[in-house]
Amino acid sequence: MGEAATNLVPIDIGREPRRPVLPRDTVVDLRDRKGIESSATSVDLRVFREEAPIEHNRAVRLSQRDLYPARQAFSPEHIVALRLLGLAIGRCRRAIDVHPEDFMAADVEIQKIQMSLPELFCCRTLGDGFGTIVNALICAFHNTDGNLLAPNQIRILEKVFTELRDKPFLSVTEADDMVEQLESNAFNPYPKELIEFLSSEQSIR
Fold it and tell me: What residues of the chain score a pLDDT lower than 50?
């Protein structure tokens, strides 16, 4: 009896299917390969893509509070300086607010600032830049001879006190720039003796 006809193709189960062998220097891009259609394994190729650019060059300015969050880490001079500078800033703002209507009240706030400068000068151990600015402020107040300050002068004082509070350890070069700001707003931030000495030297020549 002959064998029955069949459409089945015999499979050799003893041999594993051959896998393609690639050269060692071949680079395979996962995005070009087809995913495996299986319920057990699911690969999301989006993980290999860059979702959003990362900003590396954005400048971030840190304030005094960001750099020194622990108050107990401050030195005693630092704590005193921050307290006095905060008071000076508040008094400058009050002087600006009442200046058009009440010149006397504005002048009282400015006098209180002037009285606090000697104590602030005792904190000059924070750095040469700090001492340079406070010394310039003392001379600037002294050279006003008690005259009432103009609104723009009070604003520049507030700016200087704010910058000094945020950067008490500034360099001498930065301090010189702030002293020039005082000078450009009708302040004389130099000792009178120095000005008189320089004037006498010029007259002799």
Answer: 1, 27-54, 69-73
How many domains is the chain built from?
A: 1
In a domain, 28, yes or no: no
- Express each pLDDT in 160-197 by its tens digit: 999 999 999 999 999 999 999 999 999 999 987 666 65
The pair of structure tokens assigned to 54 is: 């990362």
Could you tell me the residue range of the domain that residue 118 belongs to? 73-204
Residue with tokens 């010029």: 202
User: If DSSP states are collapsed to H, E and C, what string results for 35-100?
Assistant: CCCCCCCCCCHHHHCCCCCCCCCCCCCCCHHHHCCCHHHCCHHHHHHHHHHHHHHHHHHHHHHHCC
Task: State the CB neighbour count (10 A cutoff) for residue 188.
Answer: 15
